[in-house]
Specification:
Number of strands: 0
Distance between the termini: 14 Å
Order of helices and strands: HHHHHHHHHHHH
Shape: globular
């Protein structure tokens, strides 16, 4: 009964408007030149493969809705335990930096891995500010597992504007399932740490599939499960237990 009440209390009209603007803004900005690549052309001797356009637009829209709506942010970039939250990107940089990534630009594989971590994490912070940030908060008192399914579906459909095909995921249906399942992990990390950096770092793991990725994922889950006990009894932990 409480689940139905929380769903009814949610401002679905505002969420529909928010999501509609995300889709429209993403579609429009994807038509523009790669702003990030243009900005970095004088810094690097080769064109960086990342496109931040869609990350920038959804970040701006999310910040706009936070500012104008009554939705209160429950997260910050690093959360209340900044030192512990910084373990996430630290482990990411160390793990991938030591492993190294091959590239076609003649860049040292370890340096390239660090660049990958830096720019991928920057982009994922923009995404997570939207999906596990504003969208999660706008869903109000809805239980976190249901939030995970909703944000996972919204997140996956948005990618229709980003990816040309989903064959590597076994088709779009497989991609939707992946987004929903991984959304549980990302939502859990957001609630547990009250940060954006934790889900953004976990999100960054989706960019590579190797042994280091698996080891980092296990380390991150252990870190979340044994998070600082001072969070016990807080609103976020109470939500996890409900």
């Amino acid at each position: 009964m409480k689940i139905i009440e929380s769903i009814k209390k949610t401002n679905w009209l505002r969420i529909a408007l928010f999501y509609g603007l995300l889709m429209l803004g993403t579609f429009a900005i994807r038509k523009l030149p790669n702003i990030f690549q243009m900005a970095m052309k004088d810094v690097f001797s080769f064109p960086l493969p990342w496109n931040m356009n869609h990350g920038l637009i959804i970040l701006i829209i999310s910040a706009f809705f936070y500012a104008l709506s009554k939705v209160v942010s429950t997260v910050t970039l690093f959360g209340p335990n900044k030192t512990k939250s910084l373990l996430f990107p630290f482990l990411l940089f160390v793990g991938y930096g030591i492993y190294g990534f091959n590239n076609n630009y003649g860049v040292d594989e370890h340096v390239w891995a660090l660049l990958f971590c830096l720019f991928t994490l920057l982009y994922d912070i923009m995404e997570e500010f939207t999906w596990r940030g504003y969208l999660n908060d706008s869903l109000g008192e809805i239980k976190w597992p249901i939030k995970s399914v909703i944000t996972g579906i919204f997140w996956s459909i948005w990618h229709l504007l980003i990816f040309d095909n989903f064959s590597q995921f076994g088709g779009f249906a497989g991609f939707v399932l992946l987004c929903i399942v991984f959304s549980f992990v990302l939502t859990f990390s957001t609630i547990r740490t009250n940060s954006i950096i934790a889900p953004a770092t976990l999100h960054a793991l989706l960019g590579k599939t190797n042994l280091v990725t698996l080891l980092l994922f296990i380390l991150f889950i252990i870190l979340l499960l044994f998070w600082n006990k001072k969070f016990k009894g807080s609103t976020s932990d109470a939500e996890l237990k409900s």
